[in-house]
Design brief:
Chain lengths: 347, 631
């Protein structure tokens, strides 16, 4: 797309951690820890970090600072983008704002005061499309929903409204919002799949298949929902886990049966997975491997940028685990378990 | 007018119980810009709860005013006091109750509307089922093996619901769509009925109750529908009456609520930057004009009678970047201020460019677009659009007038050069002279900007930059020397040696300064110094030539008119005048627009960028209310 994006992605790629490198964050002195984060452009995540221009960041939670980092890098990568690529990337950041919508709705259900609600919301910076002040001051869930339905997430929220009206179960709310968001993501990714080809389609397929399979297992075996409802809650997909395949999987009675009925290569990758987190880790590991190969290839720059963002977020989750572990004074072995990013490491 | 007013940093210590009145007094004072407190000993934020209550109350008030209407303008009594936190919280509770009453009534009305909509759908259903000749009583039998639902689902969910329900042996048959809702019949084995409940809830399925009345003969069903419709309409009328009643009930107190919230606004706004406190003590910090200190003391004394302590000090050099700029402009200069502010706000102590901007901008516009007729059209258009453009119309009026003045000097009226004699010269007949004047103007302008920059650096304590940098006095010496050398080379004056010496001395000083300032290894230092010194010369040369566009546009204006006359002269009488009129419209709109932008560009990039950092902070005084602030 542009020399700018190509160079920027290549420069950013140098900040990514290999799995074994993340382990080296453990057991080092504070100075070395800060130095290692700084070299990866993550000094803003260090506790107590404050330069005069960013004092505001100090008041944010670690989670909020991580999201701010992701948003900032996305903003930089999006500079030369236009049309479908820009629309897709903007929507990719919208999942943080959908989380804000969930927080707003839950807080209203629990009757929390506006100041408490506002402090829990993630600042979206230039990507923010909601008037958080206005929404936080809605009197109840009904008024909040009406305001949201007049805003940019009307399509997603409309699904959730009926679900909330019929049952005040937060599960219904989360499931409806998540499904609405990912269906929107697939719709916005479709035109890019046509222009960017297999590398981008592969990234999308990995993402959507992982979400569908993990949700299916969770809804079916943790929440014990009936197959038809489980199928309804999944995201309509055209990738390797198609609608027909998901219907078939949702009707099965055990985790083992579902894993055995998966198409190749998922079946081989997930063979022997003991539980749902293990399935998630293995699938995420496979997705990271694929994203890394796209990033290192001569794929279109937008696909490489998306691959970078997928990998960066995974890294940041690892850094979060390390930071929290240090903060809580946990032993390195426990933090290492939290950093468990692939089955090979898990053993 | 040319620089910001001298300010003082004040710290007002008072009883925490009187903070809201102190903030109100400072808002009435009109020139207090709140700033974060630097008193570390005061660790609490006593106004945070006040602001929170105010924000909630303000949000509820806005919704109520929108619902109930409150058109009366707010009149704040001079001696009114700001509400204390407890009052504000009580007001907030009342507003909550009032809003909930409105909301409930509003909600009931929406429900009636929705019920009417459903009734329409039911009638449609009845129409369809009538045509299908289905016996509803039979279809909806509770003891049947078949469980049947009639209802609606969002259109986006139909496909997914159909697929999901097929897994439980259920069928979905759509029979109507109203907006985004698809009406459908769902039928499936009663034995698996429980399995679909959660799914339908998730999908937003809304069961359409088919009353007993509808499970009968079609004519009886129709009668029931009419009866139900009449009942809902009566209910809707009742809701409207309730709303009117609520308006009457809340209306009078809404004005009082607006008043109290306006009085509470100053402290709530001041709390954004931080009102600090400890125990029963609170402190408000900020900036005021030095000349207003005595007035403030008198006002505080009259209001608090010694129950306060006011400290003040001049700004220190380390905080200059945070000090707001308060510049007062005469009314005639105000319209030009937004054009300067769109580039940036001058820092405290910096030279304010609004006045030279206004003069130079008009001169440049007039010189590039000198024509009595075109100027008159711009003037009249701006005057006619005064209501829409507001004070900005004065920029158009002044530009039109200056354009007319230059038209007189050039002897040009609607492009005709032979109607009146030029008072000065005709650009097309003496282009070299016009180009020389434009460049000479550019030299004068650049000298002015370098002087202003040197002054700004000096004021900011950057003496080195003021004396030796390329945009300081050394740069000016080099520039004047270089200009003298070029003038001598062109044979216009004999300044050869002195000018060359000046240029050499100037560039040596700049080079020396760049060398000292470059913090790098030897190789990089040599490279940086060389490139930056070279850049100094190239920039000043290019900037000077940039002003040739002033002459180019004045020539362009005449040339464009000539082209139109040539075209018009080849046509018949009607075509001739049509082309003349259309051509003049094109000149005014197209060329006028381009010239306005070019003049702005010259001001921003050849002028402001040289001496104006534009990263200052605007003086934002605490105000009583947005309405008052606007006035």
């Amino acid at each position: 797309m542009s020399a700018y994006l190509n160079t920027r992605v290549s420069l950013y790629a140098g900040r990514l951690w290999q799995d074994e490198e993340l382990d080296t964050l453990l057991g080092v002195a504070d100075d070395a820890f800060v130095d290692r984060l700084s070299r990866r452009g993550l000094q803003a995540l260090v506790p107590g970090f404050a330069i005069p221009a960013s004092r505001q960041q100090e008041t944010r939670s670690l989670e909020q600072r991580i999201i701010a980092q992701v948003l900032d890098e996305t903003r930089v990568l999006m500079r030369p983008m236009s049309g479908n690529a820009r629309t897709f990337m903007t929507y990719w950041t919208a999942r943080f704002e959908v989380s804000n919508v969930k927080t707003l709705l839950r807080s209203k259900m629990m009757g929390e005061p506006p100041a408490t609600v506002l402090s829990q919301l993630t600042p979206m910076g230039v990507f923010g499309r909601l008037d958080n002040q206005d929404l936080a001051h809605a009197e109840d869930v009904g008024e909040l929903l009406r305001r949201l339905e007049a805003g940019p997430y009307a399509g997603i929220v409309r699904h959730a409204r009926r679900a909330i009206e019929l049952s005040h179960d937060p599960f219904n709310l989360d499931a409806a919002l998540d499904r609405g968001y990912y269906e929107g993501l697939i719709a916005r990714g479709q035109p890019l799949e046509d222009t960017l080809g297999l590398p981008f389609r592969g990234l999308m397929a990995n993402l959507v298949d992982r979400i569908n399979l993990v949700w299916l297992l969770r809804y079916r075996f943790n929440y014990k929902l009936p197959p038809a409802q489980v199928y309804y809650l999944l995201v309509g997909s055209r990738y390797s886990l198609t609608g027909a395949r998901l219907q078939q999987l949702a009707a099965l009675d055990s985790l083992e049966a579902v894993l055995a009925a998966l198409p190749q290569p998922w079946q081989a990758r997930l063979a022997g997975a003991a539980d749902i987190p293990d399935v998630f880790f293995r699938m995420e590991h496979a997705a990271a491997e694929q994203a890394l190969s796209v990033l290192r290839s001569n794929a279109p720059d937008t696909a490489r940028a998306f691959a970078y963002l997928v990998l960066r977020e995974r890294d940041l989750r690892g850094v979060r685990a390390a930071l929290r572990g240090r903060h809580l004074g946990l032993p390195d072995t426990h933090i290492r378990q939290a950093l468990h990013r692939a089955p090979a490491e898990a053993g | 007018m040319l620089r910001a007013e001298p300010l003082l940093r004040i710290q007002l210590l008072m009883l925490a119980s009187e903070t809201q009145d102190a903030a109100l007094a400072l808002a009435r004072f009109g020139v207090f810009n709140p700033a974060p407190s630097t008193l570390d000993a005061l660790e609490e934020s006593p106004a945070a709860a006040y602001r929170e209550a105010w924000l909630e109350a303000e949000s509820r008030l806005a919704k109520l005013v929108e619902q109930c209407g409150e058109p009366r303008p707010l009149q704040l009594p001079e001696n009114a006091e700001a509400p204390v936190l407890a009052d504000l919280q009580e007001l907030n509770r009342w507003l909550k109750g009032a809003w909930n009453s409105c909301l409930a009534s509003h909600e009931s009305e929406a429900q009636v509307e929705e019920a009417l909509g459903r009734l329409d759908a039911l009638e449609e259903t009845l129409n369809k089922l009538e045509r299908l000749n289905v016996d509803l009583a039979h279809l909806l039998r509770q003891d049947s093996l078949l469980a049947v639902h009639i209802g609606s689902v969002p259109s986006t969910a139909v496909k997914r619901v159909t697929e999901a329900l097929s897994m439980t042996g259920h069928l979905v048959s759509s029979f109507d769509q109203v907006g985004e809702q698809v009406f459908a019949v769902i039928a499936g084995p009663r034995a698996r009925h429980e399995e679909v409940h959660g799914l339908l809830a998730q999908a937003g399925w809304r069961e359409m109750p088919v009353p007993e009345e509808l499970r009968t003969h079609p004519q009886a069903a129709r009668a029931w529908l009419e009866q139900e419709r009449a009942r809902l309409k009566a209910e809707s009328g009742a809701e409207c009456q309730v709303m009117d009643g609520l308006r009457e009930q809340f209306g009078p107190r809404l004005y009082e609520a607006r008043l109290r919230l306006a009085l509470a606004r100053p402290l709530a706004e001041a709390a954004v930057v931080g009102v600090r406190g400890q125990g029963g003590l609170a402190a408000l910090s900020g900036w005021i004009p030095r000349q207003k200190l005595d007035t403030l003391r008198e006002m505080l004394e009259a209001r608090f009678q010694g129950r306060y302590m006011l400290n003040q000090r001049a700004p220190v050099s380390s905080e200059v970047a945070e000090v707001p700029s308060l510049v007062r402009y005469p009314a005639w200069l105000e319209p030009f201020v937004p054009l300067v502010k769109s580039y940036g706000v001058p820092r405290y102590g910096e030279f304010d460019p609004a006045l030279p901007f206004a003069i130079t901008y008009l001169l440049l516009f007039g010189a590039m677009f000198g024509d009595i007729g075109h100027g008159a059209v711009i003037l009249l258009l701006a005057a006619a659009l005064y209501r829409r453009l507001g004070t900005m119309a004065w920029v158009g009026i002044a530009a039109g007038a200056v354009s007319m003045l230059f038209g007189l000097l050039y002897g040009s009226i609607f492009g005709y050069e032979d109607i009146i004699e030029p008072l000065w010269l005709s650009p097309l007949h003496d282009p070299i002279h016009v180009l020389t004047i434009a460049v000479a103007f550019g030299v004068g302008f650049i000298v002015f900007t370098l002087l202003v920059n040197a002054r700004n650096r000096f004021i900011a304590g950057q003496v080195g930059e003021a004396l030796f940098d390329s945009t300081g006095l050394a740069g000016l010496v080099f520039y004047l020397g270089a200009v003298g050398s070029v003038v001598s080379f062109a044979g216009a004056a004999d300044l050869g040696w002195p000018a060359g010496l000046m240029a050499g001395a100037g560039i040596l000083m700049v080079t020396g300064f760049k060398w000292v300032e470059a913090r790098a290894g030897l190789g990089e230092r040599i490279l940086v110094t060389f490139i930056e010194t070279l850049e100094t010369g190239i920039n000043l040369f290019a900037n000077t030539l940039s002003f040739m566009r002033v002459a180019a546009f004045s020539l362009n204006h005449v040339a464009l008119a000539l082209a139109i006359f040539t075209l018009a002269n080849g046509l018949g009488t009607a075509g001739h005048w049509f082309t003349i009129v259309l051509g003049n419209v094109v000149i005014i709109v197209l060329e006028g627009g381009i010239v306005a932008i070019q003049a702005l560009r010259l001001m921003y990039y050849e002028g402001f960028s040289r001496f104006f950092s534009g990263d200052g902070t605007e003086f934002m005084p605490l105000r009583l209310s947005p309405e008052r602030a606007k006035s």
